[in-house]
């Protein structure tokens, strides 16, 4: 199993963390929901190797969807910048 740790920031114009943003991980046809903490961070643990779709959304911001590849024993870190609407 692999751990994914990702961090989300408010926008491309600002580098402040976005607390309370929703992170939706799609595994096959199942969605798992996570919320960023006050530092804009979140952790998804124990994912098997494979490709995943991750959607980031927060009120007042445009959502963003990315695809990540997880390898066994390798932590994945991504900084995601959301744009204001």
Task: Name its key features.
Immunoglobulin-like, 85 residues, 3-stranded mixed beta sheet, 4-stranded antiparallel beta sheet, single chain
Give an overview of the whole structure.
This protein is mainly β and 85 residues long. It has one domain (2-81): Immunoglobulin-like. Helices cover 0% and strands 53% of the residues. It is built from no helices and seven strands. It has strands at 2-9, 22-27, 30-35, 41-47, 50-57, 64-70, 79-81. A four-stranded antiparallel sheet has the order 3-2-5-6, with no helix packed on it. The model has no long low-confidence stretch (mean pLDDT 86).
Summarize this, please?
It is built from no helices and seven strands. The protein has 85 residues and is mostly beta strands.
Please name the fourth-level CATH homologous superfamily.
Immunoglobulins
**Domain module tally:** 1
The CATH class designation is Mainly Beta
How does the helix and strand content classify structurally? mainly beta
Strand order of the biggest β-sheet: 3-2-5-6
Total strand count, please?
7
Count of separate DSSP helical elements? 0
